[in-house]
Design a protein that fits this description.
mainly alpha; 10 helices
Amino acid sequence: AVEKLKGAVEKEPRNATFLINLGDAYKKAVDGSNAFVNYTGALSANPSFAFANYRIAKLFETQKNWDSFLEYLNKAATVDPKFAPAYFELFYYHLQRKQFSEAEANLTKYIANTDTDPQNDYWYASLCWLKKDFDCAISKANTVIANAGGDIKARVYKLLAYSYFDK
Protein backbone atom coordinates (compact mmCIF):
# COMPACT_ATOMS: atom_id res chain seq x y z
CA ALA A 1 0.00 0.00 0.00
CA VAL A 2 2.84 2.40 0.86
CA GLU A 3 4.49 1.94 -2.53
CA LYS A 4 1.23 2.41 -4.47
CA LEU A 5 0.32 5.49 -2.48
CA LYS A 6 3.81 6.96 -2.88
CA GLY A 7 3.26 6.71 -6.63
CA ALA A 8 -0.10 8.45 -6.34
CA VAL A 9 1.41 11.22 -4.20
CA GLU A 10 4.24 11.69 -6.74
CA LYS A 11 1.62 12.26 -9.44
CA GLU A 12 -0.52 14.56 -7.27
CA PRO A 13 1.62 15.91 -4.42
CA ARG A 14 -1.06 18.39 -3.26
CA ASN A 15 -3.84 15.80 -2.97
CA ALA A 16 -4.68 15.77 0.74
CA THR A 17 -6.63 12.52 0.51
CA PHE A 18 -3.67 10.67 -0.99
CA LEU A 19 -1.42 12.07 1.75
CA ILE A 20 -3.84 10.99 4.49
CA ASN A 21 -4.06 7.50 3.01
CA LEU A 22 -0.27 7.29 2.77
CA GLY A 23 -0.04 8.43 6.39
CA ASP A 24 -2.53 5.71 7.36
CA ALA A 25 -0.47 3.11 5.51
CA TYR A 26 2.67 4.21 7.36
CA LYS A 27 0.80 4.15 10.66
CA LYS A 28 -0.36 0.61 9.98
CA ALA A 29 3.27 -0.28 9.22
CA VAL A 30 4.17 1.17 12.66
CA ASP A 31 6.06 4.11 11.18
CA GLY A 32 4.62 7.06 13.08
CA SER A 33 7.27 9.50 11.86
CA ASN A 34 6.34 9.07 8.20
CA ALA A 35 2.65 9.01 9.12
CA PHE A 36 3.10 12.40 10.81
CA VAL A 37 4.99 13.79 7.79
CA ASN A 38 2.18 12.79 5.46
CA TYR A 39 -0.60 14.00 7.75
CA THR A 40 1.09 17.39 8.07
CA GLY A 41 1.57 17.35 4.29
CA ALA A 42 -2.19 16.90 3.95
CA LEU A 43 -2.65 19.93 6.21
CA SER A 44 -0.27 21.94 4.04
CA ALA A 45 -2.22 20.92 0.94
CA ASN A 46 -5.57 21.74 2.58
CA PRO A 47 -5.38 23.70 5.87
CA SER A 48 -9.13 23.30 6.43
CA PHE A 49 -8.98 19.49 6.30
CA ALA A 50 -10.19 18.57 9.79
CA PHE A 51 -9.51 14.88 9.26
CA ALA A 52 -5.75 15.53 8.99
CA ASN A 53 -5.77 17.28 12.37
CA TYR A 54 -7.77 14.38 13.77
CA ARG A 55 -5.28 11.81 12.48
CA ILE A 56 -2.36 13.76 13.96
CA ALA A 57 -4.20 13.92 17.28
CA LYS A 58 -4.69 10.15 17.22
CA LEU A 59 -0.93 9.73 16.63
CA PHE A 60 -0.22 11.80 19.72
CA GLU A 61 -2.78 9.77 21.67
CA THR A 62 -0.71 6.63 21.09
CA GLN A 63 2.26 8.46 22.61
CA LYS A 64 0.16 9.76 25.52
CA ASN A 65 1.18 13.28 24.51
CA TRP A 66 -2.04 14.81 25.80
CA ASP A 67 -1.17 18.45 25.14
CA SER A 68 -0.59 17.82 21.43
CA PHE A 69 -3.56 15.45 21.31
CA LEU A 70 -5.86 18.20 22.60
CA GLU A 71 -4.24 20.85 20.40
CA TYR A 72 -4.91 18.94 17.18
CA LEU A 73 -8.42 17.84 18.20
CA ASN A 74 -9.31 21.44 18.97
CA LYS A 75 -7.85 22.49 15.61
CA ALA A 76 -10.02 19.87 13.89
CA ALA A 77 -13.11 21.21 15.63
CA THR A 78 -12.13 24.78 14.80
CA VAL A 79 -11.53 24.28 11.07
CA ASP A 80 -14.73 22.22 10.73
CA PRO A 81 -17.25 22.83 13.53
CA LYS A 82 -19.36 19.92 12.22
CA PHE A 83 -16.54 17.36 12.47
CA ALA A 84 -18.12 14.99 14.99
CA PRO A 85 -15.19 12.58 15.59
CA ALA A 86 -13.18 15.37 17.21
CA TYR A 87 -16.01 16.13 19.62
CA PHE A 88 -16.34 12.46 20.57
CA GLU A 89 -12.64 12.16 21.31
CA LEU A 90 -12.77 15.36 23.37
CA PHE A 91 -15.83 14.03 25.21
CA TYR A 92 -14.09 10.77 26.04
CA TYR A 93 -10.85 12.49 27.05
CA HIS A 94 -12.67 14.75 29.53
CA LEU A 95 -14.93 11.93 30.73
CA GLN A 96 -11.92 9.82 31.70
CA ARG A 97 -10.54 12.74 33.69
CA LYS A 98 -13.89 13.38 35.41
CA GLN A 99 -14.14 16.84 33.83
CA PHE A 100 -17.87 16.46 33.45
CA SER A 101 -18.84 19.92 32.23
CA GLU A 102 -16.31 19.77 29.37
CA ALA A 103 -17.33 16.18 28.61
CA GLU A 104 -20.99 17.13 28.45
CA ALA A 105 -20.32 20.14 26.21
CA ASN A 106 -18.40 17.97 23.74
CA LEU A 107 -20.96 15.17 23.87
CA THR A 108 -23.69 17.68 23.07
CA LYS A 109 -21.69 18.93 20.06
CA TYR A 110 -21.04 15.36 18.97
CA ILE A 111 -24.73 14.44 19.13
CA ALA A 112 -25.70 17.61 17.26
CA ASN A 113 -23.35 16.71 14.39
CA THR A 114 -24.08 12.99 13.98
CA ASP A 115 -26.99 10.88 12.84
CA THR A 116 -29.58 9.88 15.39
CA ASP A 117 -28.35 6.81 17.24
CA PRO A 118 -29.54 5.23 20.53
CA GLN A 119 -25.84 4.84 21.40
CA ASN A 120 -25.70 8.61 21.86
CA ASP A 121 -28.28 8.39 24.66
CA TYR A 122 -26.25 5.58 26.21
CA TRP A 123 -23.17 7.81 26.32
CA TYR A 124 -25.27 10.54 27.90
CA ALA A 125 -26.70 8.08 30.45
CA SER A 126 -23.16 6.96 31.32
CA LEU A 127 -22.13 10.57 31.83
CA CYS A 128 -25.15 11.15 34.09
CA TRP A 129 -24.31 8.07 36.14
CA LEU A 130 -20.71 9.21 36.60
CA LYS A 131 -21.96 12.64 37.70
CA LYS A 132 -24.19 10.78 40.19
CA ASP A 133 -27.32 12.19 38.52
CA PHE A 134 -29.13 8.86 38.74
CA ASP A 135 -32.54 10.16 37.64
CA CYS A 136 -30.96 11.43 34.41
CA ALA A 137 -29.13 8.11 33.92
CA ILE A 138 -32.35 6.14 34.41
CA SER A 139 -34.25 8.40 32.04
CA LYS A 140 -31.60 8.19 29.30
CA ALA A 141 -31.20 4.42 29.70
CA ASN A 142 -34.97 4.00 29.36
CA THR A 143 -34.83 6.17 26.24
CA VAL A 144 -32.19 3.83 24.79
CA ILE A 145 -34.40 0.83 25.55
CA ALA A 146 -37.45 2.50 23.99
CA ASN A 147 -35.58 3.57 20.83
CA ALA A 148 -33.40 0.50 20.25
CA GLY A 149 -36.25 -1.64 18.97
CA GLY A 150 -35.25 -4.91 20.63
CA ASP A 151 -31.55 -4.63 19.74
CA ILE A 152 -30.43 -3.64 23.22
CA LYS A 153 -26.98 -4.37 24.56
CA ALA A 154 -26.67 -5.83 28.05
CA ARG A 155 -24.62 -2.86 29.21
CA VAL A 156 -27.73 -0.64 29.00
CA TYR A 157 -29.54 -2.87 31.49
CA LYS A 158 -26.41 -2.98 33.63
CA LEU A 159 -26.26 0.82 33.69
CA LEU A 160 -29.95 0.96 34.51
CA ALA A 161 -29.51 -1.52 37.38
CA TYR A 162 -26.54 0.37 38.80
CA SER A 163 -28.45 3.62 38.55
CA TYR A 164 -31.44 2.23 40.47
CA PHE A 165 -29.13 0.64 43.04
CA ASP A 166 -27.10 3.82 43.57
CA LYS A 167 -30.22 5.96 43.74
